[in-house]
Amino acid sequence: ETGVTQTPRHLVMGMTNKKSLKCEQHLGHNAMYWYKQSAKKPLELMFVYSLEERVENNSVPSRFSPECPNSSHLFLHLHTLQPEDSALYLCASSDPGEGLEAFFGQGTRLTVV
Amino acid sequence: GIQVEQSPPDLILQEGANSTLRCNFSDSVNNLQWFHQNPWGQLINLFYIPSGTKQNGRLSATTVATERYSLLYISSSQTTDSGVYFCAVGIWFGNEKLTFGTGTRLTIIP
User: What's the pLDDT score for residue B15?
Assistant: First the structure.
């Protein structure tokens, strides 16, 4: 496999559920990102991990909990979400240097009911 | 924070036509990328172009960093070119993060 892979591609969950999104990159990068794309809004950066350390938390509610166990894997743990959290969640990776190209996964389309 | 504006917001063209998409940004950047978002949501890398001009088949891009804008050219449009095109600029804060524009929705009519 090459590139950035996200699973699942689609997820429907109730407000009381706990679920996790998974991202895996095969590009040898050391920085990974979670972005959120809501309808009619620009993509918003949620979290940045560089060398497995969280370096940015862009004022994201605590019901979203990221985890980066190694440089190839990134998770987003979800619990007690709200319907307004329904969105496309995109994972990206790059090298942790200045001005370097980022690559994105296919995204997980999340619906909270 | 940095502002990224894309124009036009929507563009409808006949197959075979040419188009120019514009991205303006409000501050100096380290990185500029153009993406095509397919109907399933994936962002496809088109160009990594912090400055200069690049071409890839029917697509080309030019970034004039000193004037803070970038242009994406699509020639001889095909229906498969339909989708949303995003410009994203990279800001260095000790790590890199991309700020996205609101996109241009391109619809190519057969």
Answer: 97
